[in-house]
C-alpha cells in the first residue's frame, strides 16, 4: 500500500516537473502532454500492481478481487445514482460554506488546455478519464488497499470508511474532499456487498463518464 502511494506521488511530481521543464512553467498542458500529465502516474501505478501481483501474489483476480459479473453492472448503475444524489447534496453544502464549487483539478487542467477548442487530445483525455483511470483507481483502493486491510482483520465497514477517506484525501483537492468521500462510500459499497470490485468499477466508470461528457459539452 505504502509503495503504491509513493509511486503515485513520486511519479506525478516527476512527470509534471519534466513536462514543465520542456514546455515552460507558464504554459498549460496541451496535446500529448495533457495525457502524459494526467494518465502517466496511473500507468506507472498499474505497472507496479501487475508486477507485484505476478511476483508476490496470485494474480489480480485472487489478490484484488478483480472480477466482473453481470449483476455487478446492475448494482453499479444503482450505486451510480446513489452517488450522484449524495454527492449533489454535499457539493451544494460545500459551495454554500466555502463560496466555491468543488471542481476536479483534472477538469480544470483540461479547460485550461482548450484555448483552440476541442482537439483529438481532449477526446483521448476524456476516454482515458472515463475508462482507464477509474479501473486503475479501483484496483488500488477497493482492490489492493481493501484486501490488505481485510487480511489484517479490519471490520468491513471500517475498511469502507478508511478506503473512502484515503480515496478522497489522495486527490489533494481540499474543497472537493467531502464530495470525493461520499463518492468513495458509494463506490466501495459494491465491494462491501459483493466481495468483488466489479460493481465498484462500473460505478466509478459511470461517474467519470458523466464528468467527461459534461466537460466536453462545456468546452464545445
Summarize the topology:
Elements: H1 2-23, H2 32-56, H3 60-64, H4 70-98, H5 105-112, H6 120-130, H7 132-151, H8 156-169, H9 177-194, H10 198-219
Would you write up a description of this structure?
With 220 residues, the chain is mainly alpha-helical. The protein has a domain of 151 residues. The chain contains ten helices and no strands. Helix 8 packs antiparallel against helix 9. The radius of gyration is 17 Å and the shape is globular. The protein starts with a helix and ends with a helix.
Brief description of this entry?
The chain has 220 residues and is an all-alpha fold. The chain has helices spanning 2-23, 32-56, 60-64, 70-98, 105-112, 120-130, 132-151, 156-169, 177-194, 198-219.
Q: What attributes characterize this protein structure?
A:
220 residues, mainly alpha, 10 helices, 0% strand
Write down the overall mean pLDDT. 91
Number of beta strands: 0
Structural class: mainly alpha
Distance between the termini: 40 Å
Order of helices and strands: HHHHHHHHHH
Q: What level of helicity do the residues show?
A: over 70%
How much of the residues is beta strand, in percent? under 5%
Q: Please report the number of helical segments.
A: 10
Q: What does the main sheet amount to?
A: none
Poorly predicted segments: none
Q: Write down the oligomeric state.
A: single chain
What is the approximate shape? Answer: globular
Q: What is the CA-atom radius of gyration, in angstroms?
A: 17 Å
